[in-house]
Amino acid sequence: MHSDRSAPLGLKIAAAAGLLFLHLPILLIFLYAFTTEDKSYQFPPPGLTLQWFAVTWNRPDVWQALSLSVRVASISTAIALVLGTLCAAAVSQTRFFGREAISLLVILPIALPGIITGIALRSAFSFADIPFSFWTIVLGHATFCIVVVYNNAVARFRRVSGSLMEASMDLGANGFQTFRHVILPNIGTALLAGGMLAFALSFDEVIVTTFTGGQQSTLPIWMLQELIRPRQRPVTNVVAMIVVIVTFLPILAAYYLTRDGDQIAGSGK
Amino acid sequence: MSAVAQDRSILPSGGSVASRVSDFLWKHPHVLLAILLGPPLLWLGIIYLGSLFALLLQSFFSIDDYSGLINYQFTLATYGQLLNEANLDIIIRTVSMAAIVTLFSIIIAFPIAYYAARYARGKWKAFFYLGVMLPLWSSYLVKIYAWKLILAKEGILTWLVTKLNLLWLLDAWLSLPVIGGNSLSVSYTGTFIVFVYVWLPFMILPIQAALERVPSTLIEASSDLGGTPRQTFRHVLLPLALPGIVAGSIFTFSLTLGDYIIPQIVGSSRLFIGQAVYAQQGTAGNIPLAAAFTVVPIVIMGFYLWAARRMGAFDAL
Predict the structure, then answer these.
(1) Which of B44, B101, B161, B228 is the best mutation test for A, with the most CBs of A within 10 A?
(2) Rounded to two decimals, what is the model's pTM?
(3) Is the backbone of residue B11 left (phi > 0), alpha (psi -120 to 50) or beta?
(4) B71 beta partners
(5) What chain B residue is nearest to A211 in terms of C-alpha separation?
(6) CB–CB of A15 and B9 under 8 A?
(7) For B297, what's the count of Cα atoms within 13 Å in the CB-facing half-sphere?
(8) At a CB cut-off of 8 Å and minimum separation 6, what does B291 contact?
(9) Cα distance from A257 to chain B (closest Cα, Å)?
(10) Per-10-residue mean pLDDT for chain A, 269 residues long?
């Protein structure tokens, strides 16, 4: 819906205030990364310095946590991409009994609170005598990443016209060729966007990871420990700022990839 | 090339293995469906539903008070324990927090969603979209950390309030029972603010999606028929936005019910359901009671989702 009249002043103020409320706290993180104060959260900062960036750079625990997070997120994203796309293809291309239930099943891992997924997995691992490892973290992450890929892929499948596939078949392509040359180019950007969001989701996940990680620290777990028992606050400030910057990039990329989703070949019908 | 293509479209089966497999799948769509659905269903079915089921099963066991070991016999004693005064207190506290957080999220989200849906276009539309998406996707812990910086006694909020000569107001608020505390970062008020902040984008997006679908002619028709802006809002806009509001509230409600990190970092020492689950399975080692606690949000969300579905909220997601 659209209106040609301009918005009432009250609405403008309320909307602007809401957006400010969403953004100012994140901006504050940037300021605190440069503060000279290292004992408290004093505002305004007594002075500004760059020294904490060097200190953070030389902290091996930060690097280990970062590397674990990146590895977990990459593998979980890869698994989620395969499973999410398969599921989306099945749900959008065919009609079958229980189709609604499938969508619900895929959404369930994020619709239910993360603590339930976490404790369920933990008790299942202890039940089956599976020791905590890199793979137990991946198992949890991939499960709730599927839905992000699935949502993106389903939305795009809906727009890819069925007549395109029929045309491809009519012209003699087999199912695999149709997939490779017709379907994949059309859903490619949606998958890339879904993959990036899945990566961001896994990279940031903390609740499920506390239950499936054992002694290992991903970057969010490292941050959580610093939040509960601060050791060196300025290092936490710097890491927080870097995390903000690193997560913004895939989100912006995903936005630009799916932005033109409406202009897909065959969607005009 | 075209000759080959024509050839194949006429002949029932091609030569290569790939096309034979493809033809087979074309003729047997059920096999194709099984191949497509098999892996994701096995993954979600075994890993997710299997674990969930195992967890729920454990809530029917009990813990031996003396040895601290799990007694594998069917009993409802653990559920009885769930309903004692201290635990019931935790449940009521969490559910009322979830309800208040949801209510305030709706109030703050609606103007943003309404402006974005009705008045923003072109560049502003993208601006609003990213303005909601970036906070939604930025790190959960960083967002909580930012509020710890803001709400701390020596932080920016106290500084601002002092500059505005309103310190007496803040002190009066903090001296209130229940919602007050030593400073905002160890009070329910602080917990509430952080909950609203962190879940707000989940409310804005579905409301905006619902409002986008309201034809502007409907609103014009309402005012043509003499409806005041207030009446139009009450009788036209709000009912049409309701599925979006309900969809958003699924997120704010469910996320608040299960969260244990926000009340742990910003809040008083009184527990929420998530913290109780965490404490029961960790330090206390009472998995059955922890499992029984997780049943509470599952049951509440089950009813919620069922009601939401009847109101058509899933179309607005």
Answers:
(1) B44
(2) 0.83
(3) beta
(4) B62
(5) B278
(6) no
(7) 33
(8) A119, A123, B55, B56, B58, B59, B78
(9) 13
(10) 71 88 88 79 77 81 87 92 86 74 79 82 82 87 86 80 78 78 81 84 85 83 84 84 82 75 40
